[in-house]
Amino acid sequence: MFLWKESYSVNISDIDNQHKELFKIANRLSDCLKEYDVITDQYDEVKQIFNELTNYTIYHFQFEEELMINNGYENIAVHKAQHDTFINKIKSLEFNEDIYINQKRSMLEALSFLLDWISNHILITDMKYKSFLNGKGII
Ligand SMILES: [Fe+2]
Ligand SMILES: [Fe+2]
After folding, report:
1. In angstroms, what is the span from residue 44 Cα to ligand 2's centroid?
2. Measured in angstroms, how far is the CA atom of residue 117 from the centroid of ligand 2?
3. What is the pLDDT of residues 94-127, one digit of tens each?
4. C-alpha distance from residue 55 to each of 8, 44, 52, 73, 91 (Å)
5. Which part of the chain is the Hemerythrin-like domain (predicted)?
6. Is 39 a residue whose pLDDT tops 90?
7. Where are the domains of the chain?
8. CATH homologous superfamily of domain 10-133?
9. Which residues neighbour ligand 1 (ion) by CB within 5 Å?
């Protein structure tokens, strides 16, 4: 269960809402994994979640990057490089031809991808723009 907490807030409502959306997708995936033990074919659901996750990832990262560019945030290169790595990772998960026969492993890999994103990106890298953007009046 992925639970969003106030300590995850970057104090920018659009971004907090987008991050909460990520937690929702993560919870759907976690439920899907639990269901898999009962119903051994979750292929359609897995494909659907992965597709949404890819689209959401691209949308959210573009949103953040535009906000950083438009406000003259200096450390954008490092931040964007991490975004690009996450996009490549989720695309490789989504378009992996073995998803059908490796549904459980695909879900576990996606969940570890999401944990990595939350703990290493949202809580560390995203937090670095918080005071800068808040200081520019972005809340
Ligand atoms: Fe973010
Ligand atoms: Fe980010």
Report:
1. 29
2. 9
3. 999 899 999 999 999 999 999 999 999 999 999 9
4. 22, 17, 5, 25, 10
5. 12-131
6. no
7. 10-133
8. Hemerythrin-like (1.20.120.50)
9. 126
pLDDT at 6 exceeding the cut of 90: yes
Q: Please tell me the distance between residue 30's alpha carbon and the centre of ligand 1 in angstroms.
A: 20
Query: Which ligand is nearest to the Cα of residue 60, counting in written order?
Result: 1
Contacts of 90 (CB under 8 A, 6+ apart): 50, 53, 54, 57, 110, 113
Tell me: pLDDT of 38 over 90. no
Smallest-distance ligand from the CA of 18 = 1
pLDDT attached to residue 40? 85
For position 138, what pLDDT does the model report? 96
Neighbours of 87 (CB within 10 A): 14
| Residue 129 Cα to ligand 2 middle (Å) | 9
Note the ligand closest to the C-alpha atom of 128: 2
Distance 27 CA to ligand 1 centre (A): 17
